[in-house]
Amino acid sequence: MIKRVNHIAIAVPDLELAAETYRRLGVTVSEPQVLPEHGVRVVFLEFENVKLELIETYGEKSPVASFMRKNPSGGIHHVCFDVEDLQSTSETLKDAGIRVLGDGPPKIGAHGNPVLFAHPADLFGVLTEFEEPR
Ligand SMILES: CC[C@@H](C(=O)O)C(=O)SCCNC(=O)CCNC(=O)[C@H](O)C(C)(C)COP(=O)(O)OP(=O)(O)OC[C@H]1O[C@@H](n2cnc3c(N)ncnc32)[C@H](O)[C@@H]1OP(=O)(O)O
Ligand SMILES: [Co+2]
């Protein structure tokens, strides 16, 4: 089901400051993207072997707001895996007793691909995102 790591996300209190910090460390940083449907602003850090996603809360109902209240300096927020088929992934997760978050169809993520999230309490304390590359 899981093919590879797509990205690791770090929640930050100030996206511009975090982006500038990584630029100074020699990292290629994308332009900020606003994703109102996900309640975040995001930039990507490009590495040879993996992408990192820096996320900042956006809007009144950001799913990251509560995490930031508990972790005001920021912290590792989620890991994302590529999967072949999101529908069968959703069914496999549910069969394994792992809660899939949200009740509608998968949202489109920052890369233009459908994504879903599984509850951190059911995956060893790690919020886990699954993405189907198209
Ligand atoms: C950029 C777009 C997209 C992409 O394409 O890559 C993204 O990545 S968007 C990223 C933001 N979106 C999401 O996070 C969506 C899924 N998340 C959620 O639905 C919620 O955040 C949540 C996981 C259900 C938590 O909701 P919240 O309102 O924060 O509830 P609580 O504060 O009560 O948390 C419940 C429980 O879970 C623990 N928790 C919360 N967040 C995390 C986390 N990131 N990692 C690990 N654990 C987390 C929290 O501490 C609570 O634990 P207990 O206190 O033990 O109950
Ligand atoms: Co993500």
TrEMBL record:
<protein>
    <submittedName>
        <fullName>Methylmalonyl-CoA epimerase</fullName>
        <ecNumber>5.1.99.1</ecNumber>
    </submittedName>
</protein>
<dbReference type="InterPro" id="IPR017515">
    <property type="entry name" value="MeMalonyl-CoA_epimerase"/>
</dbReference>
<keyword id="KW-0413">Isomerase</keyword>
<keyword id="KW-0479">Metal-binding</keyword>
<dbReference type="InterPro" id="IPR037523">
    <property type="entry name" value="VOC_core"/>
</dbReference>
<dbReference type="GO" id="GO:0046872">
    <property type="term" value="F:metal ion binding"/>
</dbReference>
<dbReference type="InterPro" id="IPR051785">
    <property type="entry name" value="MMCE/EMCE_epimerase"/>
</dbReference>
<dbReference type="Pfam" id="PF13669">
    <property type="entry name" value="Glyoxalase_4"/>
</dbReference>
<dbReference type="GO" id="GO:0046491">
    <property type="term" value="P:L-methylmalonyl-CoA metabolic process"/>
</dbReference>
<dbReference type="GO" id="GO:0004493">
    <property type="term" value="F:methylmalonyl-CoA epimerase activity"/>
</dbReference>
<feature type="domain" description="VOC">
    <location>
        <begin position="4"/>
        <end position="133"/>
    </location>
</feature>
<dbReference type="InterPro" id="IPR029068">
    <property type="entry name" value="Glyas_Bleomycin-R_OHBP_Dase"/>
</dbReference>
<comment type="similarity">
    <text>Belongs to the methylmalonyl-CoA epimerase family.</text>
</comment>
